Amino acid sequence: MTKNSSNIMALSPNTSNKRETVCIFGTGDFGRALGLKMIQSGYPVVFGSRSTQTSSLIPKDAEVLSHAEAAQKAAIIIIALQRQHYNFLIPLAEVLHGKVLVDVSNNLKINQYPESNAEYLSQLLPGARVVKAFNTVSAWALQSGTLDASRQVFVCGDDMEAKQMVMDIVRAVGLTPLDKGSLLAAQEIENYPLQLFPMWKFPIFLSLGLTAFFFFYCLALDVIYPYVYQNKDFSFFIVISIPNRICPILALILLALVYLPGVLAAIIQLYRGTKYRRFPDWLDKWMLCRKQLGLVALAFASVHVLYTLVIPIRSYVRWRISSHTISQALNNKTEPLNTTNAWLSDSYVALGILGFFFFFLLGITSLPSVSNNVNWREFRFVQSKLGYLTLILCTAHTLVYGGKWFLNLSLYKWYLPHAYMLSLIVPCIVLVIKFVLIFPCLDKPLTQIRQGWERNPKYSE
Ligand code: NAP
């Protein structure tokens, strides 16, 4: 009788307004936090525990029973236990038959076990309907209500109805369920909270490598060279001048690297004549971290702006201006205004300001709260059209900075080009390829390929 009634309960999803009782196995941190949240959302909650004594820690409206008794009261059972204790559920197989078991567990290491905890639970209790959910939400966030950053709850499971019932609970407690498919996805969902900024690794290591390279490059040309050949000590350049060279260089290179994989992908698609073949792995990974590359570039650009703002108060700069003025006074000779220089300097500053403004706009539109409020076409317009405009403005800013010295070989130290010239290589390559790709003879086939056309279709009628 007991078994039959529990099975009927297990098969009937929540169709009325009254909330169904939810059972939680385990009165640990997570079980209690989730239980409290559910009670606050109107669910009757019953805990299944090894000890049926209530304590002040357990939400006061919840019942605490033995596992078997608690399981009989609900169709959905949240298994808030560590995986190593799952074995104790085997004797309860009969009472758990047909129930929706929600696996919330996490591991200590990525791919710690050959199969996911949820699949393991499903193997132990083949009669139960296992759904993976809630593992990305922390007990602390549930208790303190600070769920803004982790409102999304990944849900997966083989039983559609069971998954739907769990997603209803997720919604009811004020979170957003995201269906990740079958139970096969559980491994990925369990690995998710263990990852450490996965998309940021490449941008951060790349920028660290480039920073180190350009630091030593600028140190050699701006500090060591004058010391060796002119016996001048410019070591203080390390504090502001060199960082203020490195920041714009990195901002420009990283911004160009955001757009380089896109043009490479276009070349590959044109060459293959199809979009249905996978890109090489390295290109796939590169494309996935473009947003992070762009944000790191924006951080470098912002620091460059700050360094630039302090230039007038630097002692070295004030000394140079005053000694120039005094030398003019002593020689009784004033320099006439050089209009070309004035044009170059104003254009350089204007291009920098505009470039930074659009760069900032790109950064803002990449925020989820903003990107969720624009449609696909608007997002593409900002990230592609405005993105290229930003790249053009920033490249022009650097080109104008070079001005007339660009081709003056006498200014090269140790036959090495100035660091800003190196920073122009990648952006110029990207802009030239993009310009070539705009030509109708290439743009037209590329658009067709991206709409599904194939030069040599694999499956022809
Ligand atoms: P916990 O504090 O260690 O509690 C686990 C509960 O399991 C204990 O309170 C105990 O409940 C029960 N238990 C312990 N040993 C047992 C045994 N030998 N046999 C049967 N039951 C036993 O763990 P937790 O932090 O609540 O986490 C529970 C699960 O949620 C874990 O799988 C964890 O990965 C997952 N999770 C936790 C968080 C978090 O922020 N804590 C976040 C996401 C997911 P009784 O004394 O009532 O029997």
UniProtKB/TrEMBL annotation:
It comes from the Eukaryota. Residues 249-383 form the Ferric oxidoreductase domain. Its cofactor is heme b; FAD. It is a multi-pass membrane protein. One of its GO terms (biological process) is copper ion import. It catalyses: 2 Fe(2+) + NADP(+) + H(+) = 2 Fe(3+) + NADPH; 2 Cu(+) + NADP(+) + H(+) = 2 Cu(2+) + NADPH. Belongs to the STEAP family. This is Metalloreductase STEAP4. It comes from Merops nubicus.
